[in-house]
Design brief:
Layout lengths: L2 H32 L2 H20 L1 H7 L2 H24 L4 H32 L5 H30 L1 H21 L14 H14 L3 H15 L4 H11 L4 H24 L1 H6 L1 H19 L5 H29 L2 H32 L2 H25 L13
Helix pairs in contact: 1-2, 1-5, 1-6, 1-7, 2-5, 2-15, 3-8, 4-5, 4-7, 5-15, 6-7, 6-11, 6-14, 8-9, 8-15, 9-15, 9-16, 10-11, 11-14, 13-14, 13-16
GO molecular function, one term: transmembrane transporter activity
Subcellular location: Cell membrane
Pfam family, one: MFS_1
Amino acid sequence: MSLSFYYLLVSQSSTKLAYTLYSMTIITFIYQTTQSATLASAVTIVSVVSQLIGGSTVPLIMQKYALKSILLISQIVQLIIYSFIVVALLTIPSPVNYILLFILLGTISFFDGWSNPSRNALIPAIVSKEKLVDANSILSTTSQSLQLLGWSIGGIVIVYLGHEKAILITIVLLLVSLLSLFLLKAKAAKDKKNRKGRLETLKEGWILVFKHPKLSTINKMDMIELFGGSIWIGAVTLVFVQEALGQDEKWWGYINSAYYAGTILGGLLVWRLSQLVNQHLVFFILLGSVGVSILIVIYSVVSLPMIALILVILMGPLYQVRDIAQSTFIQNSIDKEDLGKYLAAKATINQVVFSLSVFIIGVLVDLVNVRFVYLFSGLLLFFSSIYGYFKLLKKHDSYSNESSKFL
């Protein structure tokens, strides 16, 4: 693996930790000072909407700037805004300050919407095709580990150091990320100046999402899976733990930790089997989907907490093998110049579908038994797998000789 990949890994790791800590800090600060759960939850809503808007502008930005430059601009702007947030937190709370705080939060999330598509599109530019599975598994495992670490220690940091110092730690983490990005070296992209108009540039990613012969199938599978994917948000898992398993919040924490532990284990497993996965990407995408769907269906009917915990841990490797194989398949199936546009459009669709799913799943949990919601999600995932089988394998048996360049 190239040195530039490890610089990207350090940058992503620092950013993930920073974003987790900053999210927890702002949510707890607003709740503690206002005692309003509505205002605290508005942090997530503002972040998601702003990321959607930011992500939709990525193709235009990619038309003018290199991927590394986009990441640097994004993080420099975020760093400046974090500094303003420190000042806002030190100011006596007032309605004006909360309005300013939400504006700053929205701006950070807007520029964060540039980061993920650009970072993921940068991977093939600094990693050889043969090492893509290794790279994706390392990045994914590290990301899951840091999310587990961040949410575990974030509260402790805020309690003992306070909100202002927590944001200062966030600023230090972003500085580390920036330094890593400066050291990273990526191949220069082709000159894209004035190549296409703005409208055509914006349309390119969406056309690839819906028209590309293989990636359109992947995107439709994702949409089906994401529609039931919100069963793992905190509120729904809490209801399942209490109503289906008959346990308290302590087991809610166990289930959440088991989920992250399973994904970390899965990332390590895929890394060890990277050569095999790289040779059979479509097979492992479908294996992961089918495996998770079966486990979710079983999970929906269990009553023993320990069995539920084991099932969640077992889902982790299957989720990871599907996601890592899918990421590699996408990176191999599309030109590097178009990858960022596709990822930006795909991320926008995924966020919209997931947001809609959160609402619908929430309504279903209130209207019907929570076990049914998990069963419904498992069946959706199974349907996605069957759809993928006929579209990616059966339909394309005729291109099996050609597929060696993709699989």
